[in-house]
Amino acid sequence: EQLRRVLQQMPKAELHIHIEGSLEPELIFALAERNGVKLNYASVEALRAAYAFTDLQSFLDIYYAGASVLLKEQDFYDMTAAYLKRAEADNVRHTEIFFDPQTHTHRGVPMDVIINGIYRACQDSPVSATLILCFLRHLSEEDAIATLEAALPYRDKFIGVGLDSSEVGNPPEKFTRVFARSRELGLHLVAHAGEEGPPAYIYTALDTLKVERIDHGVRCLEDPALTERLAREQMALTVCPLSNIKLCVFDQMEQHNLLQLLDAGIVATVNSDDPAYFGGYMNDNFIATFEALPLGLSHAQRLARNGFAAAFLPAAQKQQFL
Ligand code: ADE
Ligand code: ZN
User: Fold this and answer.
1) Ligand 1 pocket test: which of 99, 139, 164, 166 has the largest number of ligand atoms within 8 Å of its C-beta?
2) Does residue 112 have a known ligand-binding role?
3) What is the pLDDT of residue 92?
4) Assigned domain for 52 exists
5) Which of 78, 87, 129, 250 is the most exposed place for a label (fewest CB within 10 A)?
6) 252: how many CB neighbours lie within 10 A of its CB?
């Protein structure tokens, strides 16, 4: 109907997309073939059938296995170009793309291959696209520091750093020094917090890491003082509705708290997280959410505006989109 068309056609910003999570099973198999990598699945269908997750870790195990087919600069280029084409089709006008260098450097892929491949695809796309380097929080802070140092020759090709992977047991404060160093370098700062982890992790992401956005953050509503603070400080949350359902953060979309976040005055945004694994890209996320929750045209406009408002773009460039 009409609302659906509005959701599809409105210009959008995507602020929470892991590029390795955009790797579709067909491309995984094509790259495995091209690179002579052996997969533990017999077919595209068998791989897709394994996408039944019970929590974040059950997803991450398959996500890191899928990324093992990425070896050459052209592989990173092809993955990113495919995502940007899908984003363009969904009327995404600006995207801030996460990438996980440690997933690749630990397999012997050089940093320049990773960054140059992803960056070149961004330059070749009509969609405005910037990069955010994410540290894997299940690894040590020393490893994160070494990763940041290895990326510094390409400092002009990424705008910020983030923190992802297994949240529970790996609190933000484990990465205090590498975030302080990133801050000195003038990088933007974000972190996954309050996806599976408790509100305490959102507090330390804000107060210890000094992040400028919280990725997910949906568990903030368990703490009224935190909810009020996020609203007062207009601290954006990059919410990923289909992800939250697939990883069992909420049982069903009808239980998702996106509307409560908006009603609390929080700058919530809608994003796809790992679209190849969670059942859809930006428009799929908007449509699934609006079908399940009592959201209307004004919410659509507010969510689209929030995306651009929370983007790491110069004010003049934001005005073009708002
Ligand atoms: N890496 C890719 N997707 C992620 C998510 N939703 N949470 C944590 N780490 C991730
Ligand atoms: Zn994520």
Assistant:
1) 164
2) no
3) 98
4) yes
5) 250
6) 8
In whole angstroms, what is the distance from residue 229 CA to residue 266 CA?
9
In three-state secondary structure terms, 138 is coil
Spatial separation of the C-alpha atoms in residues 285 and 122, rounded to whole Å: 23
Would 320 be classed as within a structural domain? Answer: no
The active-site residue, picked from 1, 195, 222, 254, is 195
Distance (Å) from CA 250 to ligand 1 centroid: 16
DSSP string, 74-110: HHHHHHHHHHHHHHHHTTEEEEEEEE-HHHHHTTT--
Q: How many A from CA of 101 to the centre of ligand 1?
A: 14
Number of domains in the chain: 1
Per-residue confidence band for 10, with pLDDT thresholds at 50, 70 and 90: very high
* pLDDT, average across residues 119-137: 98
- Residue 111 inside a domain? The answer is yes
**Strand partners for 13:** 94
Give Cα separations from 267 to 60, 200, 229, 235, 257 (angstroms).
Answer: 27, 20, 12, 6, 13
- Report the alpha-carbon distance of residue 180 to residue 184 in Å, rounded: 6
* Predicted complex ipTM exceeds 0.95: yes
Range of 294's domain?
2-311
Q: Where are the alpha helices (DSSP H) in 90-140?
A: 101-105, 111-123
Beta pairing, strands 12-18 & 160-164: unpaired
Which residue has the CA at smallest separation from atom 6 of ligand 1? 273
Would you state the pLDDT for residue 103?
A: 98
Q: Is 316 among the domain residues?
A: no
- Would residue 45 show up in a list of annotated catalytic residues for this protein? no
